[in-house]
Amino acid sequence: MRVLITGGAGFIGSHLVDYLMDRGNEVRVVDNLSAGNMGNLERWSDNPCFEFVRGDLLNPVKVQDSVGECPVIYHLAANPEVRIWRAPPEDSFKQNIEATYNLLEAIRKRGDTEILVFTSSSTVYGEADVLPTPEDYAPLKPISHYGASKLAAEALISAYASMYGFRCVIYRMANVVGPRCSHGVIYDFLEKLRENQRMLEVLGDGTQSKSYLYINDCVEGLVLGAERTEHKVEILNIGPEDRVDVKTIANIVIEEMKLNDVEIRLTGGVDGGRGWKGDVKVMHLEMSRLKALGWCPQFSSAEAVRKTVKALIKNG
């Protein structure tokens, strides 16, 4: 079976490529390489079961050409930067909403897609009053335009699946970490400490507490859920069983870099200790739906962070 992965040259996408290729699938990747890296796919460049298409989902013609003869589509292409001072609202609208609309239109016109898997975000919940947060939590009140754009994409996908005869699985994801990640708190801490081994600036008050999912657990869950769900529209949380605070992550990075006497300097943050405007301070997802299908994460948040730090240090 041929599988299309949008954003397949990126961090999560390239690991999904590895997983599916190792299982014997034919895989087509479409990526504009604005955030992805062809080095992530080098292993498969000469494999006849792998195809790479350099293209932007904002180009409807390129999207139309890419979706053909792909009954399964994993839609991962998006603007990955959730910190809004680094990503203007237009980026979230174009990369997360308009691009998704173009993909859905191509699926509607081609008519041969059986299932669309979409990587949404835990940020759609906003500041949930219930922790761990289940999929039926309401009302959904995202506090960033990134979260709002993901929620809008969810709504479009649900409507198109219901109207045009394909299934969709929407994953609301915790923070995913692992080898090849090139943004996020772990990557930022490593870069800061490589520049200055005496002081580490931590945005916020250090108590921000979130779940971190290791990449292997992530891709296994994405595939398993897609294969075992039966509803026309399925929404699944995916994350580990726990969470870890930012100051603990800082200490793990310092420890794995074998540094001593590092001053952790907390900025204090904004709006009650957040790292930035729109930052959800506490995030922890409830996973009973996906676990009922047979998935279970192998690594805790702290273990996922530590494995990621080791991998990023080893690979420079």
* N-to-C series of helices and strands: EHEEHEHEHEEHEEEHEEHEHH
Largest sheet: 7 strands, parallel
- Across the major sheet, the strand order is 3-2-1-4-5-6-11
Give me the CATH fold name of the largest domain. Answer: Rossmann fold
Instruction: Count up the helices.
Output: 9
| Uncertain parts | none
**pLDDT average, as an integer?**
95
Global morphology: globular
CATH superfamily of the largest domain: NAD(P)-binding Rossmann-like Domain
CATH class of the largest domain: Alpha Beta
Termini gap: 36 Å
Strand content: 15-25%
The CATH architecture assignment of the largest domain turns out to be 3-Layer(aba) Sandwich
State the domain count. Answer: 2
Specify Rg, calculated over alpha carbons: 19 Å
Overall SS class: alpha/beta
Q: How many runs of DSSP E, i.e. beta strands?
A: 13
User: Helical content, roughly?
Assistant: 25-40%
Please outline the helices and strands.
Layout (H helix, E strand, L loop, with lengths): L1 E5 L4 H12 L3 E6 L18 E5 L5 H8 L4 E4 L13 H22 L4 E5 L25 H20 L2 E7 L1 E3 L7 H11 L3 E4 L6 E2 L1 E3 H14 L4 E6 L5 E2 H11 L6 E4 L21 H5 L8 H14 L2
Parallel strand pairs: 1-2, 1-4, 2-3, 4-5, 5-6, 6-11, 7-10, 8-13
Antiparallel strand pairs: 9-12
3D structure, described in words:
This protein is an alpha/beta fold. It folds into two domains: 2-176 and 213-238, NAD(P)-binding Rossmann-like Domain (Rossmann fold), CATH 3.40.50; 178-211 and 242-283 and 299-314, UDP-galactose 4-epimerase, domain 1 (Alpha-Beta Complex). Helix content is 37%, strand content 18%. The chain is built from nine helices and 13 strands. It has helices spanning 11-22, 60-67, 89-110, 145-164, 185-195, 215-228, 246-256, 288-292, 301-314, and strands at 2-6, 26-31, 50-54, 72-75, 115-119, 167-173, 175-177, 199-202, 209-210, 212-214, 233-238, 244-245, 263-266. Strands 3-2-1-4-5-6-11 form a seven-stranded parallel sheet, with helices on both faces. A two-stranded parallel ribbon has the order 7-10. Strand 4, helix 3 and strand 5 (115-119) form a beta-alpha-beta unit. Helix 5 (185-195) packs across helix 7 (246-256) and helix 7 packs parallel to helix 9. The longest helix is centred in the first third of the chain and has 22 residues, at 89-110. It is globular and about 60 Å long. It starts with a strand and ends with a helix. The mean pLDDT is 95.
